[in-house]
Amino acid sequence: xxxxxxxxxxxxxxxxxELLVVIAIIGVLASIVLASLNSARRKSRDARRVxxxxxxQLALELYFDxxxxxxxxxxxxxxxxxxxxxxxxxxxxxxxxxxxxPTATVNCYSFAAPSTGSRTTYHLGATLEESSxxxxxxxxxxxxxxxxxxxxSGVTYTNGFVGTDPLYDVIP
Length: 172
Description:
This protein is α+β, with helices and mostly antiparallel strands and 172 residues long. It contains two helices and six strands. It has helices at 16-66, 87-91, and strands spanning 6-7, 10-11, 110-114, 123-127, 157-158, 167-170. The chain has a four-stranded antiparallel beta sheet with strand order 5-3-4-6, covered by helices on one side. Strands 1-2 form a two-stranded antiparallel ribbon. The mean pLDDT is 90.
């Protein structure tokens, strides 16, 4: 059926060794590309987390100004409809939806607010995948569970958490 063309008695085509070398080179290049893509994906998710925290922080400030100089109550629940009390930002129209962590199983960002008295502070945070992310150099690294270093002295928080790195945390 197929005619093999011969030129000077030599068949045209690649040898098995040549094919194996090319496949090996392609495999090495593919593994290098995949490794760098995974790093880029982690950095991208971390950038989104930092942006989400800043968006929530802005919505909290709008809530504070519009709702009588207090932040929303924190809750201990994170599910498909509740995000530790941050859903009040959506209910009152300060944000279209509460941002969620792109990969976490419990995909709510950490939110703690005073459990008693006036709610004039909060503690907000997100765990980053890259422990060397530059945002971690400017965050608060405080503890809203009551142990040192406290976020605001004398305040007892509902749903407090420890803000040590790689957790990016902010307070007002």
